[in-house]
Amino acid sequence: MSRLRFQISVSLDGFVAGPNPSEEDPLGEGGEQLHEWVVKLEVWRRSHGREGGETNASSAVLEEALDSIGATVMGRNMFGGGPGPWGEEPWNGWWGDEPPFHTPVFVLTHHEREPLEMEGGTTFTFVTDGIESALAQAREAAGGKDVSLGGGADVARQYLAAGLLDELQLNVVPILLGDGTRLFENIAGVDLEQAEVIEAPGVTHLRYRVAA
Amino acid sequence: MSRLRFQISVSLDGFVAGPNPSEEDPLGEGGEQLHEWVVKLEVWRRSHGREGGETNASSAVLEEALDSIGATVMGRNMFGGGPGPWGEEPWNGWWGDEPPFHTPVFVLTHHEREPLEMEGGTTFTFVTDGIESALAQAREAAGGKDVSLGGGADVARQYLAAGLLDELQLNVVPILLGDGTRLFENIAGVDLEQAEVIEAPGVTHLRYRVAA
Question: I need a surface site. Which of A76, B10, B67, B139 has the fewest CB within 10 A?
Fold first, then answer.
Protein backbone atom coordinates (compact mmCIF):
# COMPACT_ATOMS: atom_id res chain seq x y z
CA MET A 1 0.00 0.00 0.00
CA SER A 2 1.40 3.36 -1.05
CA ARG A 3 1.61 5.60 2.01
CA LEU A 4 1.54 9.40 2.17
CA ARG A 5 4.54 10.42 4.23
CA PHE A 6 5.55 13.80 5.56
CA GLN A 7 8.92 14.56 7.07
CA ILE A 8 10.08 17.96 8.18
CA SER A 9 12.79 19.53 10.30
CA VAL A 10 11.46 21.34 13.31
CA SER A 11 13.04 23.26 16.18
CA LEU A 12 12.50 22.02 19.72
CA ASP A 13 9.97 24.81 20.16
CA GLY A 14 7.99 23.67 17.14
CA PHE A 15 8.99 26.04 14.37
CA VAL A 16 9.71 25.00 10.77
CA ALA A 17 11.02 28.45 9.87
CA GLY A 18 12.31 31.38 11.89
CA PRO A 19 10.84 34.88 12.03
CA ASN A 20 10.97 37.43 9.21
CA PRO A 21 11.44 35.21 6.14
CA SER A 22 12.58 37.01 2.97
CA GLU A 23 13.64 36.08 -0.55
CA GLU A 24 17.29 36.10 0.60
CA ASP A 25 16.44 34.24 3.79
CA PRO A 26 13.44 32.04 2.93
CA LEU A 27 13.71 30.06 6.17
CA GLY A 28 13.67 33.17 8.35
CA GLU A 29 16.15 34.23 10.99
CA GLY A 30 17.97 31.21 12.34
CA GLY A 31 15.97 28.85 10.15
CA GLU A 32 19.02 27.59 8.24
CA GLN A 33 20.07 25.76 11.40
CA LEU A 34 17.11 23.44 10.92
CA HIS A 35 18.83 21.87 7.93
CA GLU A 36 22.45 21.71 9.04
CA TRP A 37 22.08 18.04 9.96
CA VAL A 38 21.01 17.11 6.42
CA VAL A 39 23.11 19.28 4.13
CA LYS A 40 26.29 17.80 5.57
CA LEU A 41 25.26 14.22 4.72
CA GLU A 42 26.91 12.46 1.80
CA VAL A 43 23.61 10.91 0.73
CA TRP A 44 21.88 14.29 0.65
CA ARG A 45 24.77 15.91 -1.23
CA ARG A 46 24.80 13.11 -3.78
CA SER A 47 21.05 13.46 -4.40
CA HIS A 48 21.64 17.18 -4.95
CA GLY A 49 24.57 16.62 -7.35
CA ARG A 50 27.24 17.60 -4.84
CA GLU A 51 30.33 15.79 -3.66
CA GLY A 52 31.69 15.04 -0.19
CA GLY A 53 29.82 14.88 3.05
CA GLU A 54 29.59 12.54 5.99
CA THR A 55 27.71 9.37 6.89
CA ASN A 56 26.00 8.96 10.25
CA ALA A 57 22.79 7.61 11.79
CA SER A 58 20.70 10.05 9.73
CA SER A 59 22.02 8.63 6.46
CA ALA A 60 19.97 5.44 6.62
CA VAL A 61 16.86 7.48 7.44
CA LEU A 62 17.35 9.60 4.35
CA GLU A 63 18.31 6.67 2.11
CA GLU A 64 15.21 4.73 3.10
CA ALA A 65 13.08 7.73 2.18
CA LEU A 66 14.84 8.32 -1.15
CA ASP A 67 14.46 4.65 -2.10
CA SER A 68 10.80 4.35 -1.17
CA ILE A 69 9.40 7.61 -2.56
CA GLY A 70 7.85 7.45 -6.03
CA ALA A 71 6.19 10.87 -6.23
CA THR A 72 5.86 14.13 -4.29
CA VAL A 73 3.02 16.52 -3.49
CA MET A 74 3.84 20.09 -2.45
CA GLY A 75 2.13 23.42 -1.94
CA ARG A 76 2.54 26.47 -4.13
CA ASN A 77 4.53 28.29 -1.45
CA MET A 78 6.99 25.41 -1.27
CA PHE A 79 7.43 25.51 -5.05
CA GLY A 80 7.91 29.26 -4.72
CA GLY A 81 7.60 32.25 -7.02
CA GLY A 82 5.05 34.15 -4.99
CA PRO A 83 1.24 33.98 -5.06
CA GLY A 84 -1.13 34.68 -7.94
CA PRO A 85 -1.09 33.82 -11.67
CA TRP A 86 2.11 32.42 -13.12
CA GLY A 87 2.77 35.26 -15.60
CA GLU A 88 4.84 35.45 -18.77
CA GLU A 89 8.13 34.12 -17.45
CA PRO A 90 6.98 31.82 -14.71
CA TRP A 91 9.04 30.65 -11.79
CA ASN A 92 10.47 27.16 -12.28
CA GLY A 93 11.20 26.25 -8.67
CA TRP A 94 14.04 26.86 -6.23
CA TRP A 95 16.14 23.96 -7.43
CA GLY A 96 17.73 24.86 -10.78
CA ASP A 97 17.64 22.75 -13.96
CA GLU A 98 17.93 19.42 -12.16
CA PRO A 99 15.76 19.38 -9.03
CA PRO A 100 16.60 16.78 -6.38
CA PHE A 101 13.25 14.96 -6.56
CA HIS A 102 13.96 12.75 -9.59
CA THR A 103 10.26 11.76 -9.57
CA PRO A 104 6.93 13.33 -10.57
CA VAL A 105 6.01 16.29 -8.35
CA PHE A 106 2.45 17.58 -8.00
CA VAL A 107 2.18 21.25 -7.05
CA LEU A 108 -1.05 22.47 -5.43
CA THR A 109 -2.10 25.83 -6.88
CA HIS A 110 -5.16 27.88 -7.72
CA HIS A 111 -3.66 28.85 -11.08
CA GLU A 112 -3.51 26.50 -14.06
CA ARG A 113 -0.25 25.85 -15.80
CA GLU A 114 1.18 23.31 -18.24
CA PRO A 115 3.39 20.56 -16.79
CA LEU A 116 7.07 21.45 -16.51
CA GLU A 117 9.64 18.80 -17.32
CA MET A 118 13.06 19.28 -15.74
CA GLU A 119 16.30 17.35 -16.02
CA GLY A 120 16.95 14.23 -13.97
CA GLY A 121 13.43 12.80 -13.96
CA THR A 122 11.57 15.57 -12.14
CA THR A 123 8.31 16.72 -13.73
CA PHE A 124 6.20 19.40 -12.04
CA THR A 125 2.47 18.94 -12.62
CA PHE A 126 0.22 21.77 -11.43
CA VAL A 127 -2.98 20.63 -9.74
CA THR A 128 -5.88 23.05 -9.32
CA ASP A 129 -8.64 20.74 -8.09
CA GLY A 130 -7.56 20.14 -4.51
CA ILE A 131 -5.52 18.02 -2.17
CA GLU A 132 -7.36 14.74 -2.76
CA SER A 133 -6.87 15.00 -6.51
CA ALA A 134 -3.19 15.80 -6.10
CA LEU A 135 -2.74 12.78 -3.85
CA ALA A 136 -4.62 10.48 -6.25
CA GLN A 137 -2.48 11.65 -9.17
CA ALA A 138 0.70 11.24 -7.12
CA ARG A 139 -0.27 7.73 -6.00
CA GLU A 140 -0.93 6.77 -9.63
CA ALA A 141 2.44 8.21 -10.69
CA ALA A 142 4.32 6.60 -7.80
CA GLY A 143 3.82 3.12 -9.24
CA GLY A 144 3.36 1.38 -5.92
CA LYS A 145 5.98 3.41 -4.07
CA ASP A 146 5.18 5.90 -1.33
CA VAL A 147 4.20 9.52 -1.87
CA SER A 148 6.14 12.24 -0.10
CA LEU A 149 4.38 15.35 1.11
CA GLY A 150 6.94 18.04 0.39
CA GLY A 151 5.34 20.77 2.49
CA GLY A 152 4.96 23.44 3.51
CA ALA A 153 3.50 23.26 6.97
CA ASP A 154 0.11 24.63 5.86
CA VAL A 155 -0.34 21.91 3.25
CA ALA A 156 0.75 19.26 5.74
CA ARG A 157 -1.88 20.51 8.19
CA GLN A 158 -4.53 20.23 5.46
CA TYR A 159 -3.63 16.61 4.69
CA LEU A 160 -3.36 15.75 8.37
CA ALA A 161 -6.72 17.32 9.21
CA ALA A 162 -8.34 15.51 6.26
CA GLY A 163 -7.09 12.16 7.56
CA LEU A 164 -5.04 11.54 4.43
CA LEU A 165 -1.57 11.40 5.99
CA ASP A 166 -0.17 7.96 6.88
CA GLU A 167 3.20 8.80 8.39
CA LEU A 168 4.68 11.83 10.09
CA GLN A 169 8.41 12.15 10.69
CA LEU A 170 9.75 15.05 12.72
CA ASN A 171 13.45 15.75 12.55
CA VAL A 172 13.80 17.56 15.88
CA VAL A 173 16.74 19.95 15.96
CA PRO A 174 17.97 21.09 19.40
CA ILE A 175 17.47 24.81 18.86
CA LEU A 176 14.90 27.32 20.07
CA LEU A 177 13.86 29.77 17.35
CA GLY A 178 11.48 31.69 19.62
CA ASP A 179 9.23 32.80 16.78
CA GLY A 180 8.44 31.99 13.16
CA THR A 181 6.23 29.47 11.37
CA ARG A 182 4.79 26.76 13.59
CA LEU A 183 4.34 23.26 12.24
CA PHE A 184 1.19 22.59 14.25
CA GLU A 185 -1.58 25.13 14.74
CA ASN A 186 -5.03 24.24 16.00
CA ILE A 187 -4.94 20.59 14.97
CA ALA A 188 -6.33 18.10 17.45
CA GLY A 189 -8.06 14.76 17.39
CA VAL A 190 -5.45 13.06 15.23
CA ASP A 191 -4.56 9.59 16.49
CA LEU A 192 -0.81 9.02 16.38
CA GLU A 193 1.32 6.01 17.26
CA GLN A 194 5.03 6.03 17.87
CA ALA A 195 6.74 4.05 15.11
CA GLU A 196 10.47 4.70 15.48
CA VAL A 197 12.96 6.97 17.21
CA ILE A 198 16.46 7.50 15.82
CA GLU A 199 19.07 9.65 17.54
CA ALA A 200 21.68 11.16 15.24
CA PRO A 201 24.25 13.96 15.43
CA GLY A 202 22.41 17.25 15.86
CA VAL A 203 18.95 15.81 15.23
CA THR A 204 16.49 13.24 16.56
CA HIS A 205 14.15 11.55 14.09
CA LEU A 206 10.70 10.86 15.55
CA ARG A 207 8.50 8.77 13.28
CA TYR A 208 4.76 8.37 13.92
CA ARG A 209 2.03 6.40 12.22
CA VAL A 210 -1.23 8.25 11.77
CA ALA A 211 -4.05 5.90 12.70
CA ALA A 212 -6.84 5.56 10.14
CA MET B 1 28.09 19.63 40.70
CA SER B 2 24.41 19.92 41.55
CA ARG B 3 22.46 20.49 38.34
CA LEU B 4 19.13 22.22 37.89
CA ARG B 5 16.95 19.83 35.92
CA PHE B 6 13.55 20.32 34.37
CA GLN B 7 11.44 17.52 32.96
CA ILE B 8 7.93 17.91 31.64
CA SER B 9 5.43 16.00 29.56
CA VAL B 10 4.55 17.75 26.35
CA SER B 11 2.28 16.97 23.42
CA LEU B 12 3.80 16.62 19.96
CA ASP B 13 2.44 20.09 19.19
CA GLY B 14 4.20 21.60 22.19
CA PHE B 15 1.49 21.96 24.81
CA VAL B 16 1.94 21.12 28.50
CA ALA B 17 -1.78 21.54 29.20
CA GLY B 18 -4.88 21.54 27.04
CA PRO B 19 -7.34 24.40 26.55
CA ASN B 20 -9.80 25.62 29.20
CA PRO B 21 -8.17 24.44 32.45
CA SER B 22 -10.43 24.47 35.51
CA GLU B 23 -10.25 23.39 39.14
CA GLU B 24 -11.83 20.06 38.17
CA ASP B 25 -9.64 19.73 35.09
CA PRO B 26 -6.37 21.51 35.97
CA LEU B 27 -4.57 20.14 32.89
CA GLY B 28 -7.24 21.39 30.51
CA GLU B 29 -9.17 19.45 27.90
CA GLY B 30 -7.22 16.37 26.87
CA GLY B 31 -4.32 17.30 29.15
CA GLU B 32 -4.65 14.16 31.29
CA GLN B 33 -3.34 12.15 28.33
CA LEU B 34 0.06 13.82 28.84
CA HIS B 35 0.53 11.82 32.03
CA GLU B 36 -0.90 8.44 31.10
CA TRP B 37 2.61 7.07 30.46
CA VAL B 38 3.75 7.89 34.00
CA VAL B 39 0.76 7.15 36.23
CA LYS B 40 0.72 3.54 35.07
CA LEU B 41 4.34 2.95 36.13
CA GLU B 42 5.04 0.91 39.25
CA VAL B 43 7.85 3.27 40.29
CA TRP B 44 5.59 6.31 40.03
CA ARG B 45 2.77 4.59 41.90
CA ARG B 46 5.13 3.52 44.67
CA SER B 47 6.46 7.08 45.10
CA HIS B 48 2.85 8.23 45.38
CA GLY B 49 1.93 5.57 47.95
CA ARG B 50 -0.02 3.42 45.50
CA GLU B 51 0.28 -0.25 44.61
CA GLY B 52 0.49 -2.05 41.29
CA GLY B 53 1.64 -0.72 37.97
CA GLU B 54 3.98 -1.78 35.22
CA THR B 55 7.67 -1.56 34.47
CA ASN B 56 8.98 -0.48 31.06
CA ALA B 57 11.69 1.68 29.47
CA SER B 58 10.35 4.78 31.23
CA SER B 59 10.87 3.22 34.67
CA ALA B 60 14.64 3.66 34.65
CA VAL B 61 14.25 7.27 33.53
CA LEU B 62 11.98 8.00 36.46
CA GLU B 63 14.06 6.02 38.96
CA GLU B 64 17.22 7.86 37.99
CA ALA B 65 15.44 11.17 38.57
CA LEU B 66 13.97 10.11 41.92
CA ASP B 67 17.39 8.91 43.13
CA SER B 68 19.33 11.97 42.04
CA ILE B 69 16.98 14.77 43.12
CA GLY B 70 17.65 16.36 46.52
CA ALA B 71 15.34 19.38 46.37
CA THR B 72 12.67 20.95 44.19
CA VAL B 73 11.82 24.49 43.06
CA MET B 74 8.34 25.27 41.81
CA GLY B 75 6.13 28.22 40.96
CA ARG B 76 3.12 29.37 42.94
CA ASN B 77 0.73 28.20 40.23
CA MET B 78 2.20 24.71 40.40
CA PHE B 79 1.73 24.67 44.17
CA GLY B 80 -1.80 25.89 43.61
CA GLY B 81 -4.42 27.64 45.68
CA GLY B 82 -4.88 30.61 43.38
CA PRO B 83 -3.05 33.96 43.28
CA GLY B 84 -2.75 36.60 45.98
CA PRO B 85 -2.12 36.49 49.76
CA TRP B 86 -2.39 33.11 51.47
CA GLY B 87 -5.31 33.96 53.78
CA GLU B 88 -6.51 32.45 57.04
CA GLU B 89 -6.77 28.82 55.97
CA PRO B 90 -4.09 28.62 53.34
CA TRP B 91 -3.83 26.04 50.58
CA ASN B 92 -1.39 23.24 51.42
CA GLY B 93 -0.76 21.93 47.91
CA TRP B 94 -2.45 19.47 45.58
CA TRP B 95 -0.87 16.38 47.11
CA GLY B 96 -2.53 15.65 50.46
CA ASP B 97 -0.74 15.01 53.77
CA GLU B 98 2.18 13.13 52.23
CA PRO B 99 3.32 14.82 48.99
CA PRO B 100 5.39 12.72 46.59
CA PHE B 101 8.50 14.91 46.72
CA HIS B 102 10.04 13.51 49.94
CA THR B 103 12.57 16.39 49.82
CA PRO B 104 12.61 20.12 50.55
CA VAL B 105 10.48 22.10 48.07
CA PHE B 106 10.93 25.83 47.46
CA VAL B 107 7.82 27.63 46.22
CA LEU B 108 8.23 30.92 44.36
CA THR B 109 5.66 33.45 45.51
CA HIS B 110 5.16 37.16 46.03
CA HIS B 111 3.49 36.50 49.39
CA GLU B 112 5.37 35.58 52.55
CA ARG B 113 4.42 32.49 54.48
CA GLU B 114 5.94 30.28 57.18
CA PRO B 115 7.48 26.97 56.03
CA LEU B 116 5.05 24.08 55.86
CA GLU B 117 6.21 20.66 57.02
CA MET B 118 4.34 17.70 55.57
CA GLU B 119 4.60 13.97 56.15
CA GLY B 120 7.18 11.85 54.37
CA GLY B 121 10.01 14.36 54.29
CA THR B 122 8.46 17.11 52.17
CA THR B 123 8.83 20.66 53.52
CA PHE B 124 7.45 23.59 51.53
CA THR B 125 9.50 26.76 51.96
CA PHE B 126 8.04 29.93 50.44
CA VAL B 127 10.57 32.16 48.68
CA THR B 128 9.73 35.78 47.95
CA ASP B 129 13.08 37.12 46.75
CA GLY B 130 13.29 35.64 43.29
CA ILE B 131 14.37 32.68 41.21
CA GLU B 132 18.10 32.93 41.97
CA SER B 133 17.46 32.90 45.72
CA ALA B 134 15.13 29.92 45.41
CA LEU B 135 17.74 28.01 43.42
CA ALA B 136 20.51 28.85 45.89
CA GLN B 137 18.37 27.68 48.82
CA ALA B 138 17.41 24.50 46.97
CA ARG B 139 21.03 23.73 46.06
CA GLU B 140 22.01 24.15 49.72
CA ALA B 141 19.17 21.88 50.83
CA ALA B 142 19.90 19.25 48.17
CA GLY B 143 23.16 18.27 49.85
CA GLY B 144 25.08 17.67 46.64
CA LYS B 145 22.20 16.08 44.77
CA ASP B 146 20.45 17.69 41.81
CA VAL B 147 17.64 20.22 42.03
CA SER B 148 14.41 19.55 40.16
CA LEU B 149 12.48 22.40 38.63
CA GLY B 150 8.91 21.36 39.29
CA GLY B 151 7.25 23.85 36.91
CA GLY B 152 5.07 25.29 35.64
CA ALA B 153 6.06 26.24 32.14
CA ASP B 154 6.31 29.95 32.99
CA VAL B 155 8.82 29.35 35.78
CA ALA B 156 10.80 27.01 33.55
CA ARG B 157 11.00 29.72 30.90
CA GLN B 158 12.30 32.18 33.49
CA TYR B 159 15.10 29.84 34.58
CA LEU B 160 15.91 28.92 30.99
CA ALA B 161 16.05 32.56 29.87
CA ALA B 162 18.25 33.43 32.88
CA GLY B 163 20.76 30.76 31.90
CA LEU B 164 20.23 28.85 35.15
CA LEU B 165 18.89 25.58 33.78
CA ASP B 166 21.38 22.74 33.22
CA GLU B 167 19.20 19.98 31.82
CA LEU B 168 15.92 19.86 29.96
CA GLN B 169 13.98 16.63 29.51
CA LEU B 170 10.90 16.55 27.34
CA ASN B 171 8.61 13.56 27.63
CA VAL B 172 7.01 13.80 24.19
CA VAL B 173 3.56 12.21 24.07
CA PRO B 174 2.15 11.34 20.61
CA ILE B 175 -0.97 13.48 20.82
CA LEU B 176 -2.00 16.80 19.32
CA LEU B 177 -3.86 19.02 21.79
CA GLY B 178 -4.38 21.83 19.29
CA ASP B 179 -4.51 24.55 21.91
CA GLY B 180 -3.62 25.16 25.54
CA THR B 181 -0.47 26.18 27.42
CA ARG B 182 2.70 26.10 25.34
CA LEU B 183 5.96 25.06 26.93
CA PHE B 184 8.05 27.42 24.84
CA GLU B 185 7.05 30.98 24.02
CA ASN B 186 9.44 33.58 22.67
CA ILE B 187 12.61 31.97 23.97
CA ALA B 188 15.59 31.91 21.62
CA GLY B 189 19.34 31.99 21.87
CA VAL B 190 19.59 29.05 24.26
CA ASP B 191 22.36 26.64 23.33
CA LEU B 192 21.18 23.04 23.66
CA GLU B 193 22.97 19.74 23.11
CA GLN B 194 21.31 16.38 22.68
CA ALA B 195 22.18 14.19 25.66
CA GLU B 196 19.96 11.12 25.42
CA VAL B 197 16.91 9.75 23.64
CA ILE B 198 14.81 6.96 25.15
CA GLU B 199 11.80 5.45 23.40
CA ALA B 200 9.18 3.97 25.71
CA PRO B 201 5.54 2.90 25.43
CA GLY B 202 3.44 5.96 24.64
CA VAL B 203 6.24 8.46 25.21
CA THR B 204 9.69 9.43 23.97
CA HIS B 205 12.13 10.96 26.45
CA LEU B 206 14.36 13.62 24.88
CA ARG B 207 17.09 14.86 27.19
CA TYR B 208 19.14 17.97 26.42
CA ARG B 209 22.04 19.69 28.14
CA VAL B 210 21.83 23.44 28.29
CA ALA B 211 25.24 24.86 27.41
CA ALA B 212 26.64 27.39 29.85
Answer: B67
